[in-house]
């Protein structure tokens, strides 16, 4: 057992407690989640981790898995590969106004990102950038960045995952990033009203 601590907004405290209770309850029922014996395993014994896959994801493999997965709600998203030096998956999130999310795989990670708006369109960029750094906790599990696209700086929201994570986790990341992109737009409006 390992003690873990983390900070979360008070508003989600009850949700976190419920999730922890569900995990603990499930761990007592599911043999794969029960604490393992401390005995040394026999030579050649394999222990598979629940939260990772053996073979790292590739962009085409993620596309294929999302297109055939029962985890994807009907009409929720469509995916296509954008060919280039390194292929990129474009996931169009139909439930979020056809929001485009770009997914790439490199090294040991999967990067999902949403392009937000040009930096040049943001009044008082320095103050807004400071506001974003302070607002980071309001938009959980995603990071703000500035990226250059075609010679123009664009605000970007992104999340990173292990390239050996489960498809369910990838899908959760896509949904979370879409929700956070909408929240980021609201933050921009909040900043504009406060400025």
TrEMBL record:
Domain of life the protein comes from: Bacteria
InterPro entries in UniProt: DUF2170
Name of the protein in question: Sensory transduction regulator
């Amino acid at each position: 057992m390992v003690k873990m601590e983390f900070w979360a907004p008070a508003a989600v405290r009850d949700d976190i407690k419920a999730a922890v209770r569900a995990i603990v309850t499930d761990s007592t029922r599911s043999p794969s989640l029960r604490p393992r014996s401390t005995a040394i395993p026999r030579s050649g014994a394999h222990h598979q981790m629940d939260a990772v896959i053996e073979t790292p994801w590739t962009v085409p493999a993620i596309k294929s898995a999302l297109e055939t997965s029962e985890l994807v709600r009907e009409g929720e998203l469509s995916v296509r590969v954008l060919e280039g030096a390194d292929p990129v998956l474009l996931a169009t999130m139909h439930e979020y106004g056809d929001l485009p999310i770009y997914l790439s795989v490199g090294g040991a990670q999967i990067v999902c990102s949403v392009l937000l708006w040009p930096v040049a369109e943001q009044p008082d960029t320095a103050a807004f950038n400071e506001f974003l750094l302070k607002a980071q906790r309001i938009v959980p599990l995603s990071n703000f960045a500035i990226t250059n696209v075609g010679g123009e700086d664009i605000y970007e929201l992104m999340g990173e995952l292990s390239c050996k994570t489960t498809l369910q986790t990838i899908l959760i990341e896509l949904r979370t990033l879409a929700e956070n992109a909408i929240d980021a737009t609201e933050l921009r409006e909040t900043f504009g009203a406060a400025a």
